[in-house]
């Protein structure tokens, strides 16, 4: 699913992309605890969408560590300029929606996005 399609499905907007809207996302993962993201997500070749309510720069740093291409902020939470700067520096796309996480996940799943492959060791 392309970035523009994701934003359309969730009635969202792009906060930072540097014009990289042609990435094709197949998998998504939702969490507000970055420790859960670090514990569960394994590095994959396919781009992953992280759905979260976390808006501070740590979410972008976590995404960068795990090669997560796109972060979608839910619940209409404001995103600081510092977070956007860190996203640009790390080449992470940042999207935004007013939907709660549950609704966002349901909309994207119904549109064909799959859950991210993960393993617990």
Intertermini distance: 29 Å
CATH topology: Udp-n-acetylmuramoylalanyl-d-glutamate--2,6- Diaminopimelate Ligase, Chain: A, domain 1
By CATH, the architecture is named 3-Layer(aba) Sandwich
Shape: globular
SS-derived structural category? alpha/beta
Question: How many E strands?
Answer: 6
How many individual domains? 1
Task: Figure out the total of helices.
Answer: 5
CATH class: Alpha Beta
Spans of at least 5 consecutive residues with low confidence: none
Helix content: 25-40%
The biggest sheet amounts to: 6 strands, mixed
Strand order of the largest sheet: 1-5-4-3-2-6
CATH superfamily: HprK N-terminal domain-like
Q: Please state roughly what percent of the residues sit in beta strands, choosing from under 5%, 5-15%, 15-25%, 25-35%, 35-45% or over 45%.
A: 15-25%
**String of helices and strands:** HEEHEHEHEHE
Question: In oligomeric terms, what are we looking at?
Answer: single chain
**Average of the residue pLDDT scores:** 88
Radius of gyration: 13 Å
Core attributes:
121 residues; alpha/beta; Udp-n-acetylmuramoylalanyl-d-glutamate--2,6- Diaminopimelate Ligase, Chain: A, domain 1; 5 helices; globular
Secondary structure layout:
Elements: H1 3-9, E1 13-16, E2 27-30, H2 34-40, E3 48-52, H3 57-65, E4 70-73, H4 81-90, E5 93-96, H5 101-110, E6 114-115
Parallel strand pairs: 2-3, 2-6, 3-4, 4-5
Antiparallel strand pairs: 1-5
């Amino acid at each position: 699913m392309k970035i523009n399609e994701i934003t359309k499905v969730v009635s969202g907007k792009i906060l930072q992309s540097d014009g990289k809207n042609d990435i094709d996302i197949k998998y998504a993962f939702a969490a507000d605890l970055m420790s859960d993201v670090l514990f569960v997500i394994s590095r994959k070749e396919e781009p992953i969408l992280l759905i979260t309510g976390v808006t501070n720069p740590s979410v972008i740093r976590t995404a960068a560590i795990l090669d997560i291409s796109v972060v979608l902020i839910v619940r209409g939470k404001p995103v600081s300029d510092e977070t956007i700067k860190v996203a640009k520096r790390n080449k992470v796309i940042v999207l935004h929606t007013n939907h709660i996480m549950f609704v966002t996940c349901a909309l994207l799943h119904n549109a064909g996005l799959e859950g991210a492959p993960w393993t617990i060791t």
